[in-house]
C-alpha cells in the first residue's frame, strides 16, 4: 500500500525564526597576516607608472581592505540573533561583555555570552536544534549573501556540527529560507532592483523602525573594539524586529 504523500501547510502557516549575524575584525595577529597576503597579491592595474601614484593607490586600497575586514572569511562571528515566535536569543562570543538594559529578560529576550567563537557556535546550534522545527522558515535580510554563509563557515571551521535547519543538502526542499531583501526586490521593488538596505525596505513598506539612530552594520566592528557592546546588542535586536515586521507584512501573516 502506497504511503499518503505529505502535504505541507501554506507557507503563511509554517513556523519561522529570524536570523541575524554580526561579525568583528580578525585579531591583530591574523590581520597582520591577511594584510601581508593582500599586499603580496596586490597589483596597481591600469596604466599607472609613477612610483608615487602606485604607492598612494596601494595605501588607499589597503585602507579599504582594513575597513572591510569584518567581511573577510577570517572574520570571527561576534553575535548571533535568533528570534522565534515566543522568544528571542541574543548570543555573543565576548564573555566579558554585558548589556545592562537586557538584564531582566523583558519581552522574552535572553542575552547570553560565551567564551569565543566555538562556544558561541555550540550555543547557537543548541538553540536551533531545540527551538526550530523541521519545517521552520529561516528569515533574514540578505541571509543568502551574508548571514547563512558566515554562520555555516564559523560552525564548520570550529568543528561544530551544523543543525538540521542549516545543513547544506542536494535537495533544498526540506530547508526553507526567505531572504527579505530578495523577496522585496522580486515582488515589491522596481523591476531592475536587486538590492535594498533593510532600513530603506522598512521605509518603503511603511514600517516604523523599533529604534531610530541605532548603529549600522558598518559601525559594528569599531563599536566592539571600543567596548560599546550595548549599542551592538541594541542594533541586533532592532534588526530582528524589523525583519520580522517586513516578513509578516509581505506575506500577509
Fold and architecture overview:
- With 253 residues, this protein is of the alpha/beta class.
- It has a single domain, classed as 2-Layer Sandwich (Nucleotidyltransferase, domain 5).
- Helices cover 41% and strands 13% of the residues.
- It is built from 8 helices and 6 strands.
- A 6-stranded mixed beta sheet has the order 4-3-2-1-5-6, with helices on both faces.
**SSE class:** alpha/beta
Low-confidence runs of at least 5 consecutive residues: 1-8, 101-105
* Relevant CATH superfamily: Ribonuclease H-like superfamily/Ribonuclease H
Please tell me the overall pLDDT.
Answer: 87
Number of domains: 1
Described by the principal axes of the CA atoms, the overall outline is globular
Number of helices: 8
In spatial order, strands of the major sheet run: 4-3-2-1-5-6
Helix content: 40-55%
Major sheet attributes: 6 strands, mixed
CATH class: Alpha Beta
Radius of gyration: 20 Å
Distance between the termini: 38 Å
Order of H and E elements: EHHEEEHEHEHHHH
Beta-strand content estimate: 5-15%
CATH topology annotation: Nucleotidyltransferase, domain 5
Number of strands: 6
Features:
six-stranded mixed beta sheet, disordered N terminus, 13% strand, Nucleotidyltransferase, domain 5, 8 helices, 41% helix, 253 residues, 6 strands, single chain
Short description:
The protein has 253 residues and is α/β, with parallel strands linked by helices. The protein has helices at 28-41, 51-67, 117-131, 143-157, 180-187, 198-204, 220-225, 229-250, and strands spanning 16-23, 77-84, 88-92, 109-113, 137-140, 176-179. The protein is built from eight helices and six strands, in the order βααβββαβαβαααα.
Amino acid at each position: 500500500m502506497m504511503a499518503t504523500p505529505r502535504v505541507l501547510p501554506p507557507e503563511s502557516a509554517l513556523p519561522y525564526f529570524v536570523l541575524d549575524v554580526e561579525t568583528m575584525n580578525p585579531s591583530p595577529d591574523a590581520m597582520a597576516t591577511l594584510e601581508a597576503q593582500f599586499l603580496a597579491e596586490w597589483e596597481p592595474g591600469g596604466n599607472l607608472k609613477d612610483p608615487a601614484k602606485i604607492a598612494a593607490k596601494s595605501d588607499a586600497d589597503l585602507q579599504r581592505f582594513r575597513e572591510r575586514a569584518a567581511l573577510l572569511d577570517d572574520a570571527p562571528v561576534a553575535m548571533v540573533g535568533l528570534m522565534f515566535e515566543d522568544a528571542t536569543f541574543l548570543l555573543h562570543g565576548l564573555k566579558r561583555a554585558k548589556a545592562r538594559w537586557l538584564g531582566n529578560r523583558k519581552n522574552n529576550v535572553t542575552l547570553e555570552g560565551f567564551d569565543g567563537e566555538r562556544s558561541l557556535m555550540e550555543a547557537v546550534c543548541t538553540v536551533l536544534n531545540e527551538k526550530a522545527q523541521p519545517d521552520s522558515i529561516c528569515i533574514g535580510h540578505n541571509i543568502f549573501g551574508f548571514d547563512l554563509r558566515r554562520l555555516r563557515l564559523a560552525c564548520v571551521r570550529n568543528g561544530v556540527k551544523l543543525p538540521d535547519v542549516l545543513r547544506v543538502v542536494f535537495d533544498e526542499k526540506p530547508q526553507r529560507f526567505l531572504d527579505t531583501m530578495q523577496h522585496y526586490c522580486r515582488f515589491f521593488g522596481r523591476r531592475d532592483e536587486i538590492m535594498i538596505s533593510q532600513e530603506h525596505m522598512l521605509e518603503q513598506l511603511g514600517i516604523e523602525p523599533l529604534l531610530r539612530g541605532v548603529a549600522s552594520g558598518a559601525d559594528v566592528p569599531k563599536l566592539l573594539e571600543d567596548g560599546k557592546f550595548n549599542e551592538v546588542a541594541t542594533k541586533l535586536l532592532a534588526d530582528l524586529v524589523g525583519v520580522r515586521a517586513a516578513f509578516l507584512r509581505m506575506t500577509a501573516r
